[in-house]
């Protein structure tokens, strides 16, 4: 039994396998030919591996940047990193995490079937991380056994249906259709960035339409502009960190300027690879998902990882990352002045989440929306971990924390239920949210009938 459970969890937590199987199932339900089914599954599988490889290149290029930043400006504190905090959580809460994730996927399908929130969350690693956080908080609350798994699974299933819906009005402005949604743990922040862009920006002045002087038109190529911009950023930080530190601790003796230029190039290469992989995935998964939608959950929409929006505004990706990171630095200075726990800007979350926030801000508010939206997003993912850490028991004092906005929203909400009403309010609160979704669905149906 444990072997089968572990096998299912391995599939669910491996995005390439999970989404490839979804593509195979979708094509099969549409009674496509065997060669079409096989081709769709393989291309989706390879596409996700390409995206994963690109993300890995970016992470590898950003890690030394983070080390140089801490050395250059002599800061210490909590570094938000989802992978690090989940690794710690799984040592104690691994079984609960796996079961919550499994039941979360089942509840997601049920919620999508019976309510108007027709989103099927397909980002496996994001589900795993959210399941780990929910397992920790519910355990601290005092829930155990079957009740913890069922309540945690329902909470995860509700998250998987609700949060793509928060961002979907803005996602449709980016993609110009309703065939795909965003399934990532930063959806609250992306929706916030889209809203801010709408309030302060001008969507007619897109980041992708920036006019360059004739001699600088080569900067319209996103690979060129990303490489040059990141080279400048890396070199500046390296100069502050010093050649001795970089050579002895990061570059294996390589000159610190040359090392910085190499890392900037790797960053741009990672973005290039991600964009290629996303195009491959979308070409297969969206048509294949039609079969799932027609047979299992009518009118459902697949919710995929945040890089799916990168090809729509590559310039906004870079702008969003940089301005979100600046928001993190400003937040750090405020925390030092206030004497609170210091959250050091995590370069990886500021890239993936900040870049996505930039795309959303640009969709509704152009350049100004991308800048302001992602800057405020950077402030949110800096201060939210401070509010989240107290509800996570001993795990809140590990020198790292969850980074993305959705962890903060879900974690703080569950923690507040526990603080004000204990286990009863946690269970009642989760059920109340389900009741609200059903109520909204019934109201919508009544309006359609009228």
Strand composition percent: under 5%
- How would you characterize the largest beta sheet? 3 strands, parallel
> Residue share in helices?
over 70%
| Span between termini | 50 Å
The tally of beta strands, per DSSP, is: 5
Enumerate the spans where pLDDT stays under 50 for 5 or more consecutive residues.
none
Q: Report the principal-axis shape.
A: globular
H-E order: HHHEHEHHEHHHHEHHEH
* Radius of gyration from the alpha-carbon trace, in angstroms: 22 Å
How large is the count of helical segments?
13
The secondary structure category is mainly alpha
Task: Round the mean pLDDT to the nearest integer and report it.
Answer: 86
Strands in their spatial order, largest beta sheet: 2-4-3
What kind of assembly state do the chains in view correspond to?
single chain
Task: Please tell me about this protein's structure.
With 450 residues, this protein is mostly helical. The protein is 76% helix and 3% strand. It is built from 13 helices and 5 strands. The chain has helices at residues 2-12, 15-29, 34-73, 82-114, 124-141, 145-175, 187-200, 222-241, 243-249, 256-295, 314-338, 347-388, 405-449, and strands at 79-80, 119-121, 181-182, 301-304, 400-401. The chain has a 3-stranded parallel beta sheet with strand order 2-4-3, with helices on both faces. A two-stranded parallel ribbon has the order 1-5. Helix 1 (2-12) packs across helix 4 (82-114) and helix 6 (145-175) crosses helix 13. The longest helix is centred in the C-terminal third of the chain and has 45 residues, at 405-449. The chain is globular and about 60 Å long. The model has no long low-confidence stretch (mean pLDDT 86).
